[in-house]
Write a structure and sequence with these properties.
Layout (H helix, E strand, L loop, with lengths): L1 E7 L2 E7 L3 H7 L1 H13 L8 H8 L5 E4 L14 H20 L7 E10 L9 E9 L4 E3 L5
Amino acid sequence: MLFVQIRQSGLMVISAVFKEREMGRIAVLAGVAHDIAHHAASSLAYLSPHLALALRAAHQQTTQMELLDPAPYPALVAEHPPLRSALAALHVTAMQILQTHGLQPDNLSAMVFHATPSPWNQQGYGLHTRMVIVARSGKVFDSGWLS
């Protein structure tokens, strides 16, 4: 932090000049991670029940995928068109949330979405989500698991 001294009416006033604006934007990435994870867990994302059913059919309990990829899709999971559409929409929503906070994808080195279907909901409507964002600086912002 830099300090600038300003003399005003014979009084010395010290005011802080904060780091460049970009650093302030990077600080909001924890909230961005939470917003994306929360949206993905909601019914608005249309991931449920498609993701849970696709994972169970592939005998997988959890998955992760890179949302910086414009066509994210879980590895080792058979093609399921409704899931493909929902994940493409999640990518678009994630980019919109970033832009709302004045950030661009090139500010990040990773944006990894994790999802695990709730084991007690066999219909696939319960989804635990987590978003981990890594800034170009290497700083990690983790939403933690949300349900």
